[in-house]
Design goal:
mainly beta, Coagulation Factor XIII, Chain A, domain 1, seven-stranded mixed beta sheet, six-stranded mixed beta sheet, 49% strand, elongated
């Protein structure tokens, strides 16, 4: 299965920055900002089209960092030449994600009036839920000495709408993914005709035999009237004799489903169970409520 993600990065909160050399720390989000030669009217974190003021995010959540009305860039022929570096580090200060210049594809400069710089990113691997991270963004003027930076500590949580239990096994992430939107489903709303993937990443403690793992995966979905509308006793039945390559299984394993039509009795209840056929006491169960539109 091809890589579905490019990872995250994002930050900040809304704050006023109206001097050419300044320092500010937001007491709600913990974001600290400093400027030297560059100033801005506002820096915001957006989730979707909503401005948010928090430092806790759901795994797979998409965030936009927006620096609005930046002043201080030197212009050449009406264009500015910004650079934006982004570094994400874990709690042990190991660099998890690094971008030297998010604006490297604009060597001819950018015409912007007013000057608003932004980056859209997704909080997914190599970012993992249940961990804390540090984000550092540096903006500089390639034609001058101006600088503007923002730093924030944040945490990534699993989707609490998916209730998970495991026995004699473990995993890194469990989530739903939309083909149509090409992103993790965090709001538990799905649409007719969309190919939905149920994904397990980093499954641990399943038995190996000749570098193969022999899993089973059941999936049942019922509507709001408790009527069964989808049921698979074992989506991995075709691998019962051959098994699945152990390294591929541990990295990421998934199954997909979709719905045709236009009407359904919401909400839907999804129940899934991934188990080890070589050791039946090892399994991971998941349950969640979905709204189908």
């Amino acid at each position: 299965m091809k890589s579905l993600f490019f990872a995250l990065l994002l930050i900040l909160l809304t704050f006023a920055c109206d001097t050419r050399k300044s320092f500010h720390k937001d007491l709600i989000t913990g974001v600290s900002t400093s400027g030297d030669g560059l100033s801005c009217e506002e820096v915001t974190i957006l989730s979707g089209d909503q401005t948010i003021q928090r430092s806790s995010f759901i795994f797979g959540e998409e965030i936009t960092i927006q620096f609005r009305n930046i002043d201080g860039f030197k212009e050449e022929n009406g264009k500015i030449f910004p650079a934006m570096s982004i570094v994400i580090s874990d709690k042990n200060k190991n660099v998890v994600l690094k971008e030297d210049d998010a604006y490297k594809d604009y060597p001819e400069g950018i015409s912007l009036k007013p000057v608003t710089l932004r980056s859209e990113l997704t909080l997914a691997r190599p970012i993992h839920s249940g961990n804390n991270y540090n984000l550092l963004i540096n903006i500089r003027d390639k034609k001058g000495d101006g600088k503007l930076s923002a730093e924030m500590d944040f945490e990534v949580k699993p989707n609490e709408k998916i209730k998970v239990s495991s026995h004699n096994s473990g995993f890194d992430e469990l989530y739903l993914f939309s083909d149509n939107d090409n992103k993790v489903i965090t709001g538990n709303v799905i649409t007719f005709g969309d190919n939905i993937h149920l994904i397990f990443e980093g499954v641990k403690e399943f038995s190996e035999k000749d570098y193969k793992i022999f899993p089973g995966l059941s999936l049942e979905i019922k509507d709001g009237k408790d009527e069964e509308i989808l049921f698979y006793e074992d989506l991995f039945k075709e691998y019962e004799s051959t098994g699945i390559d152990a390294e591929s299984f541990k990295d990421r394993i998934s199954a997909n489903f979709w719905f045709k039509g236009s009407e359904v009795n919401n909400p839907l209840t999804l129940e899934a169970k991934l188990w080890d056929k070589l050791a039946s006491d090892r399994y991971i169960s998941a349950e969640t409520m979905l709204t189908l539109k």
